[in-house]
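User: My instructor asked us to take a sequence, write out its structure as tokens, and then describe one feature of it. I'm not sure where to start. Here is the sequence I was given:
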Amino acid sequence: MVQAPESKIKIVMRILIFPLIGAILSLNHASAEKLKETDKELLLENLEKIQKTAKEKVDARFLGALSAFRNAMSSDSATFELFLNCKERIDFTEKYLKESDFREWKRRETEPGRKMADPEFRLALRHQLRWLMLTLEAASSSANPEKLSTDAMEIIGTIFDDPAKLKKHQDVLGEDVLGTVFAKAYDINELKVPGWVNAPGNLGQVFNSIILPPYRKPERLNELRSGWIRRIQLESLKVEHWTKNESGKNEDGKGKERESEQKKEERVGTIESLKSPEYTKFIHEGLPKLQWEMETDLFKNGDENGAAVRMLAHIEKHIHHTSAKEWADQFESLLSAEQAKP
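Assistant: Let's start with the prediction itself. The structure tokens for your sequence are:
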């Protein structure tokens, strides 16, 4: 069972602030008088106490959560056990449901063939929990962007080592980790981390906001390019393995329109015939867009000569792409801006 978190910060503040109000009222009953220096000092002293106590409570809560999460990361089974404990507390205990209700729910949901009986579901939970731990690290005042970038790359790289294995549970990896039962049970679900991405499955956002920023410097162009190449590889794997299931439906469960017989015949015996229509579309439309974004990023961060040559070649190669006109306009704007520099 997950133990109930410590008292809320507001309770602590109430305990401290009531005596403070009493002290102020006893010091001066005349509302028209200005605060004395001694009154100001007392107010500031108590404010400091409130802030210190609040910070200590937050730190203690985070440390407690991290400790439990680290223990649960030892195996898929340990992660699943913590998941069940958190689920019981949030969806049963706190709703005043009987323990027998939870046991019945657990028995039903872990029967063979059910989602929670799938070993890959437990693996997905483990990845989710690991991302939650990194999110807590990102919330720290001493967070190191370089380390966060490296750790984020490692986590999503591990997820896509065998993307087909997690295909059925991509919803777990696309879920906001601060909205999970893990976060709710340890009272960290209201945490705000500016600029952070709360789901490891959101590859584009993870790369743009977390992984690539430390490399956007002229002296780190090789790392920036390598990061982009890795993003393109993972985006390709995601589309290839996660966009279509065995029944011929998309990840949202909606059926695809039938291809014309002529198109099917044209694709027979080709490499494309072995891929899903979604993946084929990505290769022709999505991939060139990502390649253009990569070269634009490199251009803006110092690789003007090399990127400019590649950008022009890219436009020529994909002149019939739906974004070709937009790319040409962007390219012209970038070159014009460079010419305008003193």
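For the description part of your assignment, you could build on this observation: The chain has two domains: 1-25+43-206, 212-248+267-342. Try explaining in your own words what that tells you about the chain.
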